[in-house]
Specification:
Blueprint (H helix, E strand, L loop, with lengths): L4 E7 L2 E4 L5 E2 L6 E2 L15 E7 L11 H5 L2 E3 L15 E7 L14 E2 L2 E9 L13 E6 L3 E3 L13 E2 L3 E2 L2 E3 L2 E3 L4 E3 L2 E3 L8 E10 L2 E10 L2 E4 L5 E7 L4 E8 L11
Parallel strand pairs: 9-22
Antiparallel strand pairs: 1-2, 1-5, 3-4, 5-7, 6-11, 7-8, 9-15, 9-16, 10-12, 10-13, 10-18, 14-15, 17-21, 18-19, 20-21
Length: 262
Amino acid sequence: KIERLEVLFFANDLCVWHPDSVTYNAATGNVSFPQAVPTSLIDGTTSYTIWVIANKSLVEMTGDSLNVLKNLLVSDDFLHNGMAPPSPLVMEGSMVTTLTTAGQHLGTLSLQRVFAKITIRIKTRGNITPNLNGGVPQVALQNYKTEATLIYTGIPPTNLPLKSDGFIAADSLDGEWLTTDYPFYVCPYRWTADHTFETFFLIKIPQTVGGVTRDHFYEVNFNYQMFGGSTGMVTNHSMDRNHHYTLELFIDQPGGTALVPQ
């Protein structure tokens, strides 16, 4: 969903025009400018990079460098993780073009979400039988990175505090899987070697073990394996923007019986 758009024209990494207003037609996806493009920009030779930002208000940026745009931060406070649909997600996209005539069609670009999306699905098997009469499995997102740069810069932050969300029920059936009502949205990151700050989940499942029913806890770090050519399978600790990840958990052993997970 797009509620507002900002369009910025850059030449040689300098913002040369930031229209006061933009008209967006949700039915067609067309964007137009109520005000005319400055005639000084229509020379048919200059290459302009046009950045389009959705669902984020920007101050007037004419005269600012591209680095100013790149380093703007987007907070995750509005995401309502797992419990409700998020507020309209911030998105960005860019294209390169020249201006030859007034009123010309500038082209087509795609927008991408600034955040990554995670669907978590849980299935128990083997000797693990959840005592669902005592409550359903619950999930709590644990995330270090709570702000994302508007445009990916590749510079990872350091010394991040842990943001611990409360537990929410994974009580929606998806076939044989249990999942939360809505997915989680998290800030992207690329931890290539040091994965100290990677996102993880706490899982709480009521179980009866040895005749005793109590909550059992698990910690699940978000990372994934992919084929690395001659190096075989390698673990990737990155989470890229505009990607949808599915984390499937097969639980067949008792967890820890305290919040410090096993």
